[in-house]
Amino acid sequence: MNQDNIVIRQEIPSDYAAVEHLTREAFWNVYRPGCLEHYVVHVLRHDPAFVPELDLVMEREGELIGHVLYTRSFITANDGRRIPTMTFGPISIRPDLQRQGLGKYLLDRSMEQAAELGAGALCIEGNLDFYGKSGFVVAGTRGIRYHGEPEQEIVPYFLLKELRPGFLDGVTGVYHTPQGYYVDEAAAEAFDRDFPPKEKKRLPGQLF
Predict the structure, then answer these.
(1) What radius of gyration, in Å, describes the C-alpha atoms of the chain?
(2) Of 83, 96, 91, 99, which Cα lies nearest the Cα of 44?
(3) Which residues are 124's β-sheet partners?
């Protein structure tokens, strides 16, 4: 991947509309007919768990080509402790530039910044084939289970990565997805009406 002329910087309000458009284009018809991710981005910016310092855009030669944002999350440990973690997403790359290593580049640089801000570990829902390249492992293999799942269930899409080696040593418990990710689908539909019309398609491999 050519990293020349790539800049990663904090999102500013004048980026909001372009970022939401980019996110919509990146996720349209991927996991469901249409998508919700652009509305998730819109909502999370106002969530108490949102981390403004890790709301990042990626540009090449002044053009917006990627975006990721982070929120604070936590693990309820079996010994009663509340272990602070972070999560991220959506992470978006402009569709015509996907599968060129840009997503991994943005992710890896953003994780470096998260570590600098003191994050000890990240928990996410995602594909191990992609995120494993950046050091994520199935969380259940480390004794961390996904909220709402049976205690012995290993959820293959629930992943974690320590940013501080040993941060989760001896920790077992349950991870809680931040509530801001659970958006109202009717509100998302209303939000989407302000964007140019696009055809919703039911395609093989969609999850919803």
Answers:
(1) 17
(2) 91
(3) 159
| Residue located via tokens 């349950």 | 174
CA angle at residue 75 from 69 to 77, to 5 degrees? 170
Three-state secondary structure of 132-181: HHHCCEEHHHHCEEECCCCCCCCCCCEEEEECCCCCCCCCCEEEECCHHH
Rounded-to-integer distance, Cα 151 and Cα 143, Å: 9
Give the residue extent of every domain in the chain: 6-178
Q: Are strands 121-125 and 158-162 parallel, antiparallel or unpaired?
A: antiparallel
Q: What is the mean pLDDT of each run of 10 residues along the chain (208 residues)?
A: 84 98 98 97 97 98 96 97 98 96 97 98 95 96 90 88 97 95 96 97 90
What are the angstrom distances between the C-alpha of 181 and each of 5, 136, 204?
32, 21, 24
Tokens of 131: 């995120």
**For residues 58 and 7, is the Cβ–Cβ distance under 8 A?**
yes
What is 6-178's CATH number?
3.40.630.30
Question: pTM of the entire structure?
Answer: 0.94
For residue 80, what are its two tokens? 């009663």
